[in-house]
Each structure stands twice: as C-alpha cells, then as structure tokens.
Model the fold of this input.
Amino acid sequence: MDYDRTHKIVANIRYLTPKDLPIIGDMNFSLTYKYLTGRPYTWDVTGKGLKYNKRTPDETDLRMRVEKRVNVGKTNITFYVEGFNILNEQVYNYSRTFNNDLNTPKWENEREVVLVYDEYYPYTTDQSVYLLTNLPRHFRFGAVVKF
Done:
C-alpha cells in the first residue's frame, strides 16, 4: 500500500535544571527526534505492470525547545526559544512528487533539478512551495506571562 512506513522512531529527551542554580536555574531543555522510512511509489519503465516498487527518501526531523522561568512578584514569566527542522532536511510531498506524471520522471532521472519547473525553458520557476511539505530550519522566540 502507498501509505506503508516500515519503521517510525520518535525520541524525546528533556532536562530540567534545579531551581537553586545561578543563571541556568529553573530551565527546561528539550529535544525531539523523529525518523520515518520512505513510502512506496510506482516507477515502472519496463511496462511490466509493477506496483509500488520504489521507496521515497527517509524522513528525519529534529526539534528543540529551551525555556527559562522567572518569577517577578506574583507574576511568572517563561521565556522560550524553539527550533524547527534543525537538520534542515527536505521532505517531499508524496502526491505531488511521487504520483505525478511530470515530477516522478524528474525525480528518477534528474533529481538535482526536481524543484525547478522548467516546462517552458528558459523561463523557470521554483517548485519548493509546491513540492516540499516542511519549512527550512527556523526559530521562534516568545514569552508566556502568568499573573
């Protein structure tokens, strides 16, 4: 079946520092790693009617979060920074890349230019927004105030 993933691993590591440490006291460090094997897709140039004979690339994702709690009177403030796709991996959209009459042959024959739409060469367009399901490495900063 096209949704089959043979393996999936999710690991989370979290460390909380003691409150009495100077500067780094009452901090929370968290890392989440996810690994998924590729899904099957069909690529049959022989015409033998093969189904689901190839696999998409494996997918990995690493996320992190660091929090620091500060008490100001009766107000509790938590400052945080989150990092997404730390390994900066590309995850391809299954339907648009591996079940597509234009993009599947490009994946098999010209993988280095699969993200470029060149049907009307020399006019080309970047297909990253269309073919990738994840964002490049990015970070988010914020604060949560409880009073």
